[in-house]
Amino acid sequence: MLPTPVADLAANTLAYEITPKVKPTGFREYDARWVFEKEINLLGIQALGAGLGTLIHELGKRPEIVVGHDFRGYSTSIKQALTVGLMGAGITVHDIGLALSPVAYFAQFDLDVPCVAMVTASHNENGWTGVKMGVDAPLTFGPDEMGRLKDIVLNGQYKAREGGGYKWVEGMRERYIADIVKDVKISRPLKVIAACGNGTAGAYAPEALSRMGVEVIPMDAELDHTFPKYNPNPEDMKMLHEMEAAVKEHGADVALGFDGDGDRCGVVDNEGVEIFADKIGVMLARDLSSQHEKATFVVDVKSTGLFMTDPVLIENGATTHYWKTGHSYIKRHTTDLDALAGFEKSGHFFFREPYGRGYDDGLVAAVTILKMLDRNPDKSMADLRRALPTTYQSPTMSPHCDDDKKYGVVDRIVKQLEGKTELIGQKVRDVNTVNGVRITVEDGTWGLVRASSNKPELVVVVESPVSEENRNAMFHAIEEVMAGYPEIGEFNQKL
After folding, report:
1. What is the pLDDT of residues 192-215, one digit of tens each?
2. Beta-ladder partners of 233
3. Residue 331: per-residue pLDDT
């Protein structure tokens, strides 16, 4: 098959045209992401496909795979190179074309195909590409599978096999939308902003929402892979501020924002207040636990402490488990615990039967939010927000840290914070190290530092149930610790 990949090749050279280029750091904890051409070339993508196909055979899975791509100027060529590698490894490829990540996951069920490879860089900036992969629906790869895939690809251990094939799949967009909207009819009059950031969701969300019976106002729904205003990322304050302005301009009941590959959903309420996804998770957990006794939920370590302290959840007998941040981690843990749903602060929502199939889907989250509003006809989204106990949260803040340094830096920060008995003038109550370090003091104020799983960054989140002052004090305490590490660069945003 292909030559063994190398990490460093200059573009516009003979070697670049005949040798796979694959930077090792592109293999993340649960998916793969590179800056296209700078860190991986098309032959490198073909090698990735060959490696994935080899791994599928190694794992004893039926050699068939769903492949789709997001809306970026180069994603079609990435998918085609991946397809060539998969076919050369003896895999039959079911190509669903332009798609959201949850459309690819849905297609696994709809087509009865065991494996998936979705070409997407999600919310990463233009220039990035990547692949989300799985061989056991609704789950996607975790560290073990990604580690083995990395070994196969970087060591050129892929194997050529006969039997590969290609099938073009017609109509998956319509089948997915029809599945999303079946049995959904919102009876309450609702005006909804569908914010798509000019990403792939623009081809899906406005139509799906309108078929549910709500009035839809599309916002940046025209597909434009230059992303002229901002990245389609409902955790990005620029996108949230645009959603806020649209709500106020149109007098909307809610704004729902979708990321570049449609597996996340962000929310701005009818008063123009952005509600972080973990708070939306608390609202939904309240709603769902009122209908299901002893409901179990899974949330990531970036999420609000309200999942443990909210009196309504306690009264409803709900149980919540905090787990590692990352769509594959929460998806798998939600399935392992037979939980009703999983929530991530980044906007990934994982609903299991009877609400979903267990994978993250921004439109399924939108349906569940609209149904919650429909069940509360006398309450606005802002009313539901105000009904929660007040906490003072930060957005997700990410200082730069190189991929080959970030995990070592976090390990040292974990050890440093584990040794703290006092912080912001209070005794330390708890130190959770399941994913980085989340340190909590007596009054419930907490701060988190972890390594980003998909970018050369660290992740910092802080929250206080008491005051903005304590929240800010926690951030400054963490910032002071981080100042001792020259490997850590500038924040993308701060309090």
Report:
1. 999 999 999 999 999 999 999 999
2. none
3. 96
CB atoms within 10 A of CB 46: 24
d(CA 67, CA 82): 9
**pTM score > 0.85 for this model?**
yes
pLDDT over 80 at 454, yes or no: no
Q: For residues 381 and 29, which has the higher predicted lDDT (pLDDT)?
A: 381
CA dihedral 480, 482, 486, 491 (to 10 degrees): -100
Q: Look at residues 141, 59, 106 and name the one whose alpha carbon lies nearest to residue 332.
A: 141
Question: What are the backbone angles phi and psi of residue 268, rounded to the nearest 5°?
Answer: -120, 130
Beta strands 64-69 and 92-98, pairing class: parallel
Secondary structure (DSSP) of 158-176: ----S--EEEEPP-HHHHH
Distance CA 495, CA 485 (A): 20
Q: Residue 323: its pLDDT value, please?
A: 95
Helical pair 172-181 and 101-111, crossing angle rounded to 10 deg: 90
- Amino acid type, 397: M
Distance in angstroms (rounded) separating the CA atoms of residues 190 and 107: 30
